[in-house]
Every structure is written in structure tokens, then in C-alpha cells.
Amino acid sequence: MTSDLDKRLDGIDQRLDRIEDKIPSKWDMAQVIFFVVGGLMAAAVFGPRLMALLDAAPK
Asked: Around 33, how many Cα atoms within 13 Å sit in the side-chain half-sphere?
């Protein structure tokens, strides 16, 4: 009985380890957030300027 339980718990541990390997680390998430915020800031700064240039372009 205890060996069956040990096998089940080992299987659960292995599955959790596999799932844990797929989860990004804190630094990976920080890098993603950095690039997203940087992109949003660039769009906020340069977006209106680009729209004004496109609007003023000869037609």
C-alpha cells in the first residue's frame, strides 16, 4: 500500500517539476514588462508626431 502511494506521489512531483520548468522566472517577466512599457511610452511620445506628419503629407 505504501509503495503505491509513493509511486503516486513521485508521479505528482515529476508533473509539478515539469510544470515549474515551463513557468517563466521573475526576471523573464520583468523583461517582458520592461519592453511592453517601453513600447507604450514610445507610442505615447512619437504617435502624435507621426500622425501629424501623415496628416500634413501632400495628398
From this structure: 7
C-alpha distance from residue 57 to each of 16, 47, 50, 52, 53 (Å) = 57, 15, 11, 9, 6
pLDDT tens by residue, 16-45: 888 877 888 888 899 999 999 999 999 999
SS3 state at 57: coil
- DSSP class of 23: S
- The residue type found at 56 is A
**For residue 10, pLDDT beyond 70:** yes
* Residue 46 identity: F
